[in-house]
Amino acid sequence: MIGEKVQRVEDERLLRGQGRYVDDLVPGALEVAVLRSPHAHARIVELDLDPVLDVEGVVAVYTYDDLSGPMAEPLPLLIPHPALTQGRTQYALAKDEVNYVGEAVAFVVAESRYVAEDALALIRVTYEVLPPVVGVDAARRADRLVHDDVPGNVAARMEQSVGDAAAAIEAAPHRLSLDLTVERSASMPMEGRGTVARWDPDTKRLHVWSSTQTSTGLRAAVAAKLGLDLVQVDVITPDVGGGFGVKIMHPWPEELLVPMAAMALGRPVKFTEDRREHFISSAHERGQVQHVDVGFDDEGRLLGLSVQFWHDNGAYTPYGLIVPIITSTQLLGPYKPRAYSVVFESLYTNTVIVTPYRGAGRPQGVYAMERTMDAIAAYLGKDRTEVRATNFIQPDEFPYDQGLTFQDGRPLIYDSGDYPASLEKLKALVGWDEFESFRQEARASGRRVGIGLACYVEGTGVGPYEGAHIHVETSGKVKVAIGLTSQGQGHQTAFAQVVADELGVPFEDVEVTTGDTRRMPYAVGTFASRAAVMSGSAVALAARQTRAKALRIAAEALEVSEEDLEIVDGQVQVKGAPATKVALGTIAVLSNPLRYAFDEASKLATQFTVGDTSKPPIADDEEPGLEGKDFYSPERSTFASGMHAVIVETDPDTCEIKVLKYAVVHDCGNLINPLIVEGQIHGGVAQGIGGALYERMAYDEHGQLQNASFMDFLMPYSTEMPATIDIDHLETPSPLNPLGLKGAGEAGVIPSAAVFASAIEDAEGFPIHAMPISPSELYDLRLQHGHEEPS
Amino acid sequence: MTEPLHDVRLSVNGVVHQVAVPARRLLSDALRHDLRLTGTHVGCEHGVCGSCTVLVDGRPMRSCLMLAVSASDYEITTVEGLADEDGSLGPVQQAFKECHGLQCGFCTPGFLTTITAGLEENPSPTAEEAREMIAGNLCRCTGYQNIVASVLRAAELKAPQP
Ligand code: FES
Ligand code: FES
């Protein structure tokens, strides 16, 4: 079944309205509303809760002063890094100072969200407003500071290099410099964040359901912060309405405050974020300012590349330097820079925190590199595909060591790929060579069109590990548990396909549970395009174990050797003599020697029926039950790659930018389910189109987010999408994992800013250095470049 | 102050319910939390995303923009009411399943109701009309390609068999 377009098993439930998302759970729970800072930068002078305390239906109000123990400490800095010398994290509820509009100040628990929101309006806070730092330029000017004790607003400065880029550029026959910017956007899943918790005083256990990308991470955080043993906390991730990165950061203040309140009040408590809250208190990404110096030869071959960039990390750095490290390393894409140096500063601003959003720093890196490639081609008067091809790592050069350290702390070594083949496919798919004649035709009828392309390499499947547990019921049904969560990627389907193949059972008999720490307490999470690679591999390994055990038991029962057995359709049978067989369910019965007969099936395994009386019922190195459990922990990431091309039409008068054709060539190794992979690409491309043409976080100089609603933050509707997205796959298997997989979740969005800049530049004939680009910005650019104002 | 409650009759998916709700209770909240029909989802509460779309006398309405107290005179259909009478998936649901028209499924109930109404009005849409039919609903997962395909497939499934 691996490799087949299997329809998803999740769908039936979701289509009937029987999905279970966090807000659908635990009816009758108390409901929360959070008082959030209205100022980007202010000191809290006084907090007056008196007017709230008597409001009917209000059960509790918490501020910083009500927190104690670890809860009163700053939230954890999840991913420390030696270069992050000035890491800062917020408190679960603001202590003395607020650093962005939306920071949590007070937490009201009431009989309903309506009442809780009424109560918020009654809390009186006196703020001393401080001057805010908004945007990278203001952060670099540093005439104001976000954190008094962080000089220059610099959280971290990090440098990496291979060779002497400065000298190589200096000595190169040709040199160019580019100044580039990318603005902020955000994941913006349709379901916001949400958490519900119930404390069971009888068993002293805490049950937490959260819309998270990592149940195990949240579990560890809740236990640590609330002073519980890990085994007292169960975290279950139910259906999640999209994540795209924003739900990975843990713990969010509410994810701790909700269980804390549930324990204190002895009643279930629920937090469901609304859309405005999501805009102003959940993470953003993408904002960077970049400067590139490049030296190259007559062919456009890179001789030296030096990149500096300034990364807006928002008010705090809970997720460390992951995003800028990814930008600085994945920038290199499929190319050999020969000599490379990169230095970035991660800067504080009085805005919402920045943590990974699908692509996680790669879109910015690809943008810097691909703008550079286009600039070189324009300078030399060469075809843009030729300049790229000149710089590609060749298929016989793998594994290819870029000589840098990747986001997982491991060497940046590409495992496999075929970039020249990808480019050929892309050119054919988009009609690269035929485009000039199309342009002439279009021009003849007064239309303006342009074509662009962009290439990327994506490190996927980062460690440290994932695991899987497989249990075969005596009915023959197969129950699989993986620890990472699902936000719509179809994990229940894809991993059932893997088990069906590896174990030899009908697909319909396999049921996969995700993100429930009761079933699989060791896991990392769903991010960085790692689920298929990590859990897929772990599931395969666990299935192989289960299979081996089934064969051992069956060999004994059928008195044949294991090598002569195979498992087909849930039956262990003798190769070549399939009539001699035993059902997997029966093996499950035999695997568990019993004293009692619970039902007809288990009679077979009771003590007077089964077993060699000269041996212990369970051999020394065996365990009861037909089960398998294994973990997959790769030495390093596996590198997927791809190339996108787009043909755009820009309106000569209105500057409207229309997508005429979008083409994707994608190499994520072997595919488990092409239907799901293509869906991931579609969704990524849509987010990419949004990010390139429509979406931005419009902060004003006071740090107020001016477009914090779906009215004003423009995400693509169906009408903004091209009629088709043409996809071609190349499958270069990864040598690093048992199924030859590479990740696919983020790919669709990675090259979008770059590919649109390339195409719009081609249509307009002047360089594009800032993305996203709106019609009015294009209009201004036309004026700057001396186009006639339309009459 | 105790909030005054109003008795409201809500007829949903052919079943009549009596609920007592404050005047400000949104229809979306009444459906989800008072009637426990949690298939209707809330993505923005300001009328833009379409996740909360239900059918009111057959016409698509954003239940986050309607108060429960104003809904008593109507027949409301939610996603839970879209299955065929024999319990199998309705044509729009079936089409979504076949065409991989959903990923996380959060926006999906709003699309299913919108398309159900859309196909009543235009039983055989072109691809362009299918795209227009769903142009008021946001989905962050699918890029809409497979939702457009689902609209066309649903039209096929609904068409009277020759
Ligand atoms: S929730 Fe009603 S339109 Fe978004
Ligand atoms: S399927 Fe996730 S928002 Fe549409």
TrEMBL record, chain A:
SMART domains: Ald_Xan_dh_C. It comes from the Bacteria. Residues 16-131 form the Aldehyde oxidase/xanthine dehydrogenase a/b hammerhead domain. GO terms for molecular function: iron ion binding; oxidoreductase activity. Keywords: Molybdenum, Oxidoreductase. InterPro entries: Ald_Oxase/Xan_DH_a/b, Ald_Oxase/Xan_DH_a/b_sf, Ald_Oxase/xanthine_DH-like, AldOxase/xan_DH_MoCoBD1, AldOxase/xan_DH_MoCoBD2, AldOxase/xan_DH_Mopterin-bd_sf. This is Carbon monoxide dehydrogenase large chain parolog without usual motifs.
